[in-house]
Amino acid sequence: KKILLMNGPNLNMLGIREPGVYGNNTLAELERQVIEYGAAHDCEVECFQSNHEGDLVEKIHATHGACDGIIYNPGAHTHYSYALRDALGSVSTPCVEVHISDVDAREPFRRISVIAPACVAQVKGRGFAGYCDALDILLEGVTERLG
Ligand code: DQA
């Protein structure tokens, strides 16, 4: 199977950015962990990170018919980007939304996800392990969206 691991804005700053919230490990380390977990489950994991909404929209479009699932941490786009929600709604590729932190236990604006309805599941507050949980969910073959 082919899986896209996608991280949105500011996640390239993992390891530097608010380590008390997001930990000390880098994006490269996260990607290595998910690639390894994928390999152990017969999945090829492609990694993509961008700080630009349009680039993320186009990456989602490119998964249509080409990819079996998306593991996606949309960062702050989670809370307001209808363009990314609609991008996920434009393709048949199932997506699991991931948050490293527990977004429900932080500022109120983080409790809202406009992306979740276009996803088949949401994983939050599990640190980097949440990305592997997301792969497990995709491998279960869940296709019904939350919205
Ligand atoms: C995040 C939570 C978001 O609220 C925040 O804007 C991020 C990271 C997380 O992984 O916990 O950039 O998605």
TrEMBL record:
Protein residues bound to substrate: N73, H79, D86, I100, S101, R110
Keywords: Amino-acid biosynthesis, Aromatic amino acid biosynthesis, Lyase
SUPFAM superfamilies: Type II 3-dehydroquinate dehydratase
Enzyme class: lyase
EC number: 4.2.1.10
Annotated catalysed reactions: 3-dehydroquinate = 3-dehydroshikimate + H2O
One MF term in the entry's GO annotations: 3-dehydroquinate dehydratase activity
Keyword Cell division: no
Pathway(s) this gene product operates in, as recorded in its UniProt entry: Metabolic intermediate biosynthesis; chorismate biosynthesis; chorismate from D-erythrose 4-phosphate and phosphoenolpyruvate: step 3/7
Active-site residues, Swiss-Prot/TrEMBL: Y22 (proton acceptor), H99 (proton donor)
Subunit structure: Homododecamer.
Its job: Catalyzes a trans-dehydration via an enolate intermediate.
Family: Belongs to the type-II 3-dehydroquinase family.
Descriptive protein name: 3-dehydroquinate dehydratase
Organism of derivation: Senegalimassilia faecalis
